[in-house]
Amino acid sequence: MAPGVTYYRIDAPKIAKKRRPGQFVILRPTADGERIPITIADSDPDEGWIALIIQAIGKTTSLLATLGEGDSIADMAGPLGLASEIEHYGTAVTIGGGVGAAIAYPITVALREAGNEVIAIVGGRSREYVILEDELNAVADEVYPCTDDGSYGFHGFVTQQLQALIDEGRSLDYVLAVGPIPMMRAVAEVTRPYGIKTVVSLNPIMVDGTGMCGGCRVTIGGETRFACVDGPEFDAHEVDFEVLQRRNASYGWWEEWRMEQFEEACRSGANS
User: Fold this and answer.
1) What is the pLDDT along the chain (272 residues), one digit of tens a residue?
2) Of 36, 73, 154, 223, which sees the most CB atoms within 10 A?
3) Number of compact structural domains in the chain
4) pTM for the full model?
């Protein structure tokens, strides 16, 4: 779909039947591999598949990127987490930064089906990193692609496009933002002065997805919550983004080391 970004359609009939917008799965590529949470981008309960959109960043996601049609993964649990709160808000804005668009897309569909006027903003570093624009055009009333380098659409960040809509006098009743932590934090600060209901989908370090490991602790309104069972969506104006950023960076050194091992194994032709 974009450099390092792959669309997967996985046979998972039970999950496809139960899944609702905003929920995720936890999967392992191999029986001794790492468990990673991935939000479900789409599904078809009749055909029995779910769609995942994954960016190859670390060892596990890079291993997934080596799979092809007909391959399998070791296991997958889901759907997990609370579904998005879909209501008739009025005018809703969904914002997807990078692969965050994969999470914003099914929520955009649900908001439109609930009768909202939906404006979608989707961003990327350059044109090749803007994903799901066609799919969003099929369901949203308006779609605004943005690129950091100005190679396509609005030249600037998704937050600047959001501010432009506000400055035009558009009445916005609900904003959903999904993407890198700095982007979600910036969106929260744009909407805060206007009192616009704003929700973000958080993806902290997560292991079991059932609230038992405590790895996905987030601070919301000064209280500790577990993203896997209390979220993943929270009021953006209540999220302590600084704590979230620090916790997500806790194992950066380990991730870099494992990625180096994986790349060396690939170069040597070994099975990692």
Assistant:
1) 889 899 999 999 999 999 999 999 999 998 988 888 999 999 999 999 999 999 988 888 888 888 989 999 999 999 999 999 999 999 999 999 989 999 999 999 999 999 999 999 999 999 999 999 999 999 999 999 999 999 999 999 999 999 999 999 999 999 999 999 999 999 999 999 999 999 999 988 888 888 888 888 999 999 999 999 999 999 999 999 999 888 877 777 778 778 787 788 888 875 54
2) 36
3) 2
4) 0.89
Instruction: Evaluate whether 183 touches 159 at the Cβ level (below 8 Å).
Output: yes
Structure tokens at 3: 């450099």
Q: Which H or E run contains 201?
A: strand 197-201
149 shares a domain with 60: no
How far is the C-alpha of 231 from the C-alpha of 85, rounded, in Å? 11
SS3 171: coil
In total, the chain counts a number of residues equal to 272
Same domain, 198 and 139: yes
Domain that holds residue 57: 5-80
Phi, psi of 249, deg, nearest 5? -95, 0
At residue 188, the 3 state secondary structure works out as helix
* Number of neighbouring beta carbons within 10 Å of residue 272: 16
